[in-house]
Specification:
The protein is of the alpha+beta class. It is built from nine helices and four strands, in the order βαβαββααααααα. The protein binds glutathione (GSH).
């Protein structure tokens, strides 16, 4: 039995769920998965056992007990990533500056980029060629590309690799759904951003997630543009 259970939403739509799932998969940490269909009659009942204000993702870690003997629950994507990194002592760059930058860009992703998040909802099934990109979304995209290039410029010679800091880390997980949005809405990218997006799309874990998302038949109307 796994110590960890990750409660997630629909793979086709739930971008927040994808982040910790992608993080665990790429760190080769085993976990059980519970999928809850979002915005349906049963959603509230299925999320009631969790202290997450009826939101996903939630990580349940039975190796850690609370005062009342129940297992630790961690909700909110960034807190889940931090807990996994603390428990397994991996998942952020080791070097102090890059660790701080990785956390800064992850926090920026967590709290910002509402233009792209609102206008281009993740939908693994869809591809919209030449989708019209509004000015506020373009601003977000430009900032994201600048962030990716900034991270890449900090890669240490001994950590060379295709991820944002060479080796995979939490920042890659935080930006993974953004890649899906950029590809789905046909955002034109160049240079490192284009190669990075392609690499994330081809990643085994991403392919597994997208394939499962494409098989789902549940529809969330507000995420359909
Ligand atoms: N800031 C939260 C956001 C979580 C969130 O909004 N999750 C969405 C699914 S992607 C959700 O559970 N929505 C259900 C609802 O709002 O009722 C996090 O980082 O985990």
């Amino acid at each position: 039995m796994n110590d960890l259970k990750l409660v997630i939403g629909n793979k086709n739509y739930s971008s927040w769920s994808l982040r910790p799932w992608f993080f665990l998969k790429n760190l080769n940490i085993e976990f059980e998965e519970e999928l809850v269909w979002l915005f349906e009659d049963c959603t509230e009942r299925h999320l009631k056992p969790y202290f997450s204000n009826e939101k996903v993702p939630v990580l349940v870690d039975i190796s850690v007990s609370l005062q009342d003997g129940t297992p630790l629950q961690v909700w909110d994507t960034l807190a889940i990533i931090e807990h996994i990194a603390t428990r397994f002592n991996k998942g952020w760059p080791e070097e102090v500056a890059n660790k701080a930058i990785a956390r800064a860009v992850s926090a920026e992703m967590h709290s910002g980029f509402t233009g792209i998040r609102n206008a281009l909802p993740m939908n693994c099934k869809k591809h919209f060629p030449n989708y019209p990109i509004e000015a506020d979304v373009k601003q977000d995209i430009d900032r994201i590309v600048a962030v990716w290039e900034y991270c890449q410029s900090q890669i240490l010679p001994e950590k060379k690799g295709a991820w944002l800091f060479g080796e995979f880390c939490g920042a890659d997980a935080m930006f993974a759904p953004v890649v899906m949005r950029m590809i789905g809405y046909d955002v034109k990218l160049n240079g490192f951003a284009r190669d990075y997006a392609q690499m994330v799309l081809e990643n085994d874990a991403m392919q597994e997630w997208v394939s499962a998302g494409k098989l789902e038949t549940h529809v969330i109307d507000e995420d359909e543009v």
